[in-house]
Amino acid sequence: MTQPYNHIAIIGIGLIGSSLALATKRILPDTHISLYDHADDVRAEAGQLGLGTEIHDQISTAVSNAELVVLAVPVGAMAEVMAELADSLKPDTVITDTGSTKRSVIKDISPLVPDDCHFIPSHPLAGTEFSGPASGFATLFEKRYWLILPNGNEQIKIDRLAGYLGALGAMVEFMDTEYHDRVLAITSHLPHLIAYTIVGTAVDLETQLKEDVIKYSASGFRDFTRIAASDPTMWRDVFINNDEAVLEMLQRFTEDLSYLQRAIRWKEKDKLFELFTRTRDIRRSIIDMGQDS
Amino acid sequence: MTQPYNHIAIIGIGLIGSSLALATKRILPDTHISLYDHADDVRAEAGQLGLGTEIHDQISTAVSNAELVVLAVPVGAMAEVMAELADSLKPDTVITDTGSTKRSVIKDISPLVPDDCHFIPSHPLAGTEFSGPASGFATLFEKRYWLILPNGNEQIKIDRLAGYLGALGAMVEFMDTEYHDRVLAITSHLPHLIAYTIVGTAVDLETQLKEDVIKYSASGFRDFTRIAASDPTMWRDVFINNDEAVLEMLQRFTEDLSYLQRAIRWKEKDKLFELFTRTRDIRRSIIDMGQDS
Q: N or C, fewer C-beta in 10 Å, chain A?
């Protein structure tokens, strides 16, 4: 396959960055892949893993020959990283990011993008609870959505980025910024916040009870612990940067939870049964759409 | 293997009842298995699936020759079912149940147990989001905990029940009633309540947003929809019957959620990071205990 870009730079060698390097190498082997991470130990680990074409000690040299620069860092670090590399970009370079919040990233990055370069925000809906360069794998993006936010760019630039991500196996879709942040608030950010909360509630239990909660976690709680094991820095930044949409969805959730709490207290069996029947239908829709089995 | 009981009766042919019939048939093939369910269509389906030694149309004949009667019905139906079958039990029969709440079941069943019979409550920590006779499988209880509540019974009776459940591959442990209900409130009941709530919140979103939440559900929400697809009758009864422990844990959860909500609103990054780091450790404990990978 002819590669859409001859030279890409990936900034941040975590789960997403390392997976992107592995997928690109496997599917588009002639692509030159420059990697950079600000942490010495991460660069060293990436080197041992043989990730990318080469690993740079300087962000400037990592990006200076790239046609595409991918910012795969926590959303709270986007502005700082962009400021560091902006002067080293060659004309016509496309910059994308992989952040889970888009309004904040566009606000942070846009003022720093050189006039002759092009920022096309994006977001792969893919991940695991693991982090770091060793957690990456080449098939992470296969059959997973990768959302592109056109952000006023030329169609030809957008198509090229979409072609690259599609070549890696991702299902590319286009989405508006505000809408993205609302959809993600409910599909991803609120579930993570709730999982963190309930696991946190368990952490604070008295010792014996906490130990038994861990021991007998199989009946529902365990799924939450997996979600709540996700990268703390990434998720701290997500909540801070999508605070508006998250707080709106959280408000709705809290109201609904109070409604159920009251139904339990007053033993209103019909209210509980009615809701539990409706929620079952959503699962059916997801299975019908082939998103799970 | 010599079977601990020559004749068992299973009342309720749902996920648990059918799995118990399949596991017993496979591992203790000489055990006579009488099945009963109050629903005509469930009995018919169980018959087509070839479950048990025979399927009874009357609860009285199902239990009349049994040495062990297993009540595998929603906890809200325990009293009614026990009242129906009590007069048909032969002397020295052991009755157990598989309900997720134990204080309520003991309160409901104990007054109805004949003086010459023995009620030993129990609870298998095993299940899926599916229900009905076709959802059962013989390995459901393998390497899963099955809690027994001694409830003042003779040790020899308890040991025999433990021997039977252990033969099916379950890891048998003993637990006190109040403690059971608190542990389950946090490991199972609260996670289910929260999953039902968040999926319910999504159900009420405007149409387009709801459709996209389903479409892009992979990033966290999907795990909740699986939990929230569990049997509505069973779960309605669980919340109504373990209301005290559930409401206590829910109160703690709500406080913790308010704390995080405030941290997001005021952009208190350190508070978020600190909690997300602590919750990660719980996951590590669960993996270390071999409960997940």
A: C
Cβ neighbour number for residue A29 with a 10 Å cutoff: 10
Residues of chain B contacting residue A241, judged by C-beta atoms under 8 Å apart:
none
Chain A: closest CA distance from residue B207 (Å): 12
Please determine, for the modelled complex, whether the ipTM score is greater than 0.95: no
Q: Provide the CA A199 distance to its chain's centre, in angstroms.
A: 21
pLDDT in tens, A154-174: 999 999 999 999 999 999 999
Residues B207-237 have pLDDT tens digits of: 999 999 999 987 789 989 999 999 999 999 9
Distance CA B67, CA B153 (A): 16
pLDDT at B292: 63
**Closest residue of B to A209, CA-based?**
B183
Do A202 and B282 lie within an 8 Å CB cutoff?
yes
**What is the second-level CATH architecture of the domain A179-288?**
Orthogonal Bundle (1.10)
* Closest residue by Cα to residue A268 from B69, B243, B12: B243
Contacts B217 to A, Cβ<8 Å: 187, 286, 291-292
Domain ranges of chain A: 7-175, 179-288
Give the minimum alpha-carbon distance from A165 to chain B in angstroms, rounded to a whole number: 17
* Among the four given CATH numbers 3.40.50.720, 3.20.20.150, 3.10.180.10, 3.40.225.10, the one describing domain B7-175: 3.40.50.720
What 3-state DSSP class applies to A71?
A: strand
How confident is the model over B238-265, as a mean pLDDT? 96
Nearest to A194 among B198, B226, B277 (CB): B198
Q: pLDDT (tens digit, 9 = 90+) per residue, A186-198?
A: 999 999 999 999 9
- Say yes or no to pLDDT of A292 above 80: no
| Helical residues (DSSP H) of chain A, grouped into ranges | 15-27, 40-48, 59-63, 78-85, 103-109, 155-167, 177-184, 190-203, 207-215, 221-227, 232-241, 243-265, 269-288
What pLDDT score was predicted for residue B291?
Answer: 61
Which tens digits make up the pLDDT trace of A110-164? 999 999 999 999 999 999 989 999 999 999 999 999 999 999 999 999 999 999 9
Closest-CA residue of chain B to A202: B186
Q: A36: part of which helix (H) or strand (E)?
A: strand A32-36
Contact A219 B184 (CB under 8 A): yes
Tokens of A221: 């709680």
Burial class (CB within 10 angstroms; exposed 0-12, middle 13-18, buried 19+) of B96: buried
Give residue A281's pLDDT band: very low, low, confident or very high (50, 70, 90).
confident
Q: How far is B31 from chain A (nearest CA, A)?
A: 29
Which pLDDT does position A163 carry in this prediction? 98
CA-CA distance, B192 to B189, in Å (whole number)? 5
